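Everyone, carefully examine this protein record:
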Amino acid sequence: MKKFIKNIMILNFLLLIVGIAGGFFFESSRQWLGIIFYPLIILLLIQIVAGVIGIFTPNVRLISLFAMVHGLVELFCMVFLAMGAGWGRPLRIRGRQIHPDLREGTDWTRGPRPDPTNLDEPTRQALEALWLHDAQKEHASVPAFSRISWMLAAIGAPAELMEWAHRAALEEIEHTRLCFAIAAGYAGRSHTVEPMPDLLIGGLDTKADPLHTLATESLSDGCQLEDFNADVAEACALICEEPATRTVLLQIASEERSHAEFSWALLTWLLERYPEKIKQAVEKTAIELENYRRPTAVGWDKKHLVAQADPIQLLKHGRLPDERWKELWDKRLTQTQQRLKELLEN
């Protein structure tokens, strides 16, 4: 048992090193995830289980305890700290957030482009990577709103809400194009999206009650997250000195705010129409917002790029540090909870 635990820990360590090194070579975070993330998760789970079993085995309790604690900590970091944020509404398939892989192409690139003349190469690369990540998240928001429209039709929602959901999806298409254009301006090359076959194997997740799904996701992903997205975009625009980038940030901020208002309108209608069915679920979700995974300014797989960039130029081109993101998140969470309290009381 002792030898087995040691070998698993060594294998996990080596695989983690390979994963970190791979982050320098793969532009797409999902390429990295596909190659390293899931095998490492499986090995970590084996390590944790072996550690738990070993605790009850004489002569290997100390190393077993270390293996279990180490595995749990690394698992937490892998699952909860790997991904950064981006604009738009999350797209989930069977509880897992997804977005498209990328390749070079021009069919999703349209909009103003920034002037990168005074930027060094590492800063250009960092800005390109960050805006490409935003583009991936915005693209994922398109089917996310289509899923909402589908469920709205299923529950007989009013025309105004159906229209608003479709309008939001069209705005997310435009956001995607704008993000790709900004990224292309910084790097001098354009990207487009790969197919998303995962959407065909569980895109609607229809097993849950659609009333509960719409209500709880509207609160967490819409009322809180999209209002927060608007807060961040507004704050980024305030410090941004690049005209093209600032224009895009202001448009995203305005339309993300509208998407948050759509979520509040939908939640209000659901509470008025089906109070006995969803009020308890909404109240539970409100409590769980305290534990909602806060979006971060930079994903784990992009940190090595951002670390090499000029921090002053990042600010001038509308990129805030994570400390500012946390401040905005905490402020928005308080505002969301207060607005929900007033809604429930009325």
Q: What stands out?
A: Residues 150 and 230 are 25 Å apart (CA to CA). The radius of gyration is 22 Å. The longest strand covers residues 102-104.
